Every structure is written in C-alpha cells, then in structure tokens.
Amino acid sequence: MTTTHDRLLKTLDGLSEAQLNYKSTPEVWSIAECTEHITISENSFFGMLQGTLKTPADPSRRAEVKMSDEQILKMIADRSEKVKTQEAFEPTRKFGSHDATVKEFTDLGT
After folding, report:
1. If we measure between CA atoms, which residue out of 30, 50, 21 comes closest to residue 108?
2. How far, in Å, CA of 53 to CA of 73, rounded?
3. Going residue by residue through the chain (110 aa), what tens digit of pLDDT does each one get?
4. How far is Cα 55 from Cα 17, in angstroms, rounded to an integer?
5. Of 40, 26, 20, which is closest to residue 91 (Cα–Cα)?
6. Which residues, at least 6 apart from 31, have a Cβ–Cβ distance to it below 8 Å?
7. Residue 4: which residues within 8 A CB-CB, separation 6 or more?
8. Domain boundaries in the chain?
9. Which of 47, 56, 77, 98 is the S-S candidate for 32 at Cβ 3.0 to 4.6 Å?
10. 101 near 32, Cβ under 8 Å?
11. Distance between CA atoms of 21 and 98, rounded to whole angstroms?
C-alpha cells in the first residue's frame, strides 16, 4: 500500500488544473475524479480493515471463506472487464477540492 500511495502522489505532483480536470469524453473520469474515487475507497477499506483487525481470527469459520487471496488479487488487478462502481464510491467533490482530496488521501491511517 505504501508503494502505490507514494506512486499516486508522485504522479499527481506538478499537474495543472487543466490536466487534473481533463476528460477525453464526458463519460470518463478526470484524474481529479479518479483521485477522489481512490481516496473514498481507501478510507472505506481502511476503516473496514481496522474493524476487522479488532476481532480475533476464528479458525472455526474457515469454511465460510469464499475466495482465496490469489483470487481477490487477480480480480482487483484485472481491468479487462469494466465494472461501474457503487454510488458511495463515485466522485462528488466530497472533500471540496483536489488539494483537499490529496490531503485526505495523505492523512489516511494517521
């Protein structure tokens, strides 16, 4: 997570407002919107992870696991099939500005 976190911040560094908000078509997200989506997602996943880690593992529930780690990672990495995100993860300028979104992303987990 640290590597991808740092890579995103490095990619965003120095981009102009025009570059951040450019959309090749009205249906696609801009870089700023993608950054907001990532920040919303990371916030949500980090919160779920924190909650999960508070509960001790229960080996008796092992049979309830539906997917292996490898299957989950493959699904996340495979972008050949586009899937529309859930409404809660769509960019809506929730943080007010791109700079505020980047600050929120940077502050995750601190």
Report:
1. 50
2. 20
3. 788 889 999 999 999 999 999 999 999 999 999 999 999 998 888 888 878 888 888 899 889 988 888 888 887 777 777 778 889 999 999 999 999 999 999 988 66
4. 43
5. 40
6. 12, 15, 19, 20, 21, 22
7. none
8. 1-52+89-110
9. 98
10. yes
11. 9
Q: What is the pLDDT of residue 65?
A: 86
**CA atoms within a 13 Å half-sphere pointing along the CA-CB vector of 33:** 14
Report whether 30 contacts 22 (CB < 8 A).
yes
Q: Quick check: helix, strand or coil at residue 68? A: coil
Say which amino acid occupies 44.
Answer: S
Q: What is the pLDDT of residue 18?
A: 97
Q: Report which residue type is found at 74.
A: K
Question: Which pLDDT belongs to residue 53?
Answer: 81
What is d(CA 71, CA 19) in angstroms, rounded to the nearest whole number? 35
The type of residue at 106 is: T
Give the list of residues 6+ apart from residue 13 with CB closer than 8 angstroms, or none: none
